Amino acid sequence: MRVVVDLLKCESNGLCVTQAPSVFDLTDDDELVVLAECPDESQRAAVEAAVKMCPKQALSLVEE
Ligand code: SF4
Is any atom of ligand 1 closer than 6 Å to the C-beta of 12? Predict the structure, then answer.
């Protein structure tokens, strides 16, 4: 799986960072960064929760 972020939609509220801190992070300038663009399967539940919780629908998962 691959994580795709639409930075034009992201409002940097950090909810995804809370859900999956090994996959998402915020810079000091509050810009979202993806630490693991293709996360391990062990991260799937956390990443799927982050996708669901994002209030801006800025996250999606692409199956590869
Ligand atoms: S939860 Fe959504 S809006 Fe919030 S930081 Fe993550 S991608 Fe951005």
Answer: yes
Query: For residue 41, how far is its CA from the centre of ligand 1 (angstroms)?
Result: 21
**CA pair distance 40, 27, nearest whole angstrom:** 22
Alpha helices in 20-57 (DSSP H): 44-53
pTM: 0.94
Handedness of CA 12, 36, 19, 48 (dihedral sign): positive
Q: Is the CB of 51 under 6 A from ligand 1?
A: no
Collapse the DSSP code of 9 into the 3-class scheme (helix H, G, I; strand E, B; otherwise coil) and give the result. Answer: coil
- pLDDT tens sequence across 37-55: 999 999 999 999 999 999 9
Contact, 4 vs 59, CB < 8 A? yes
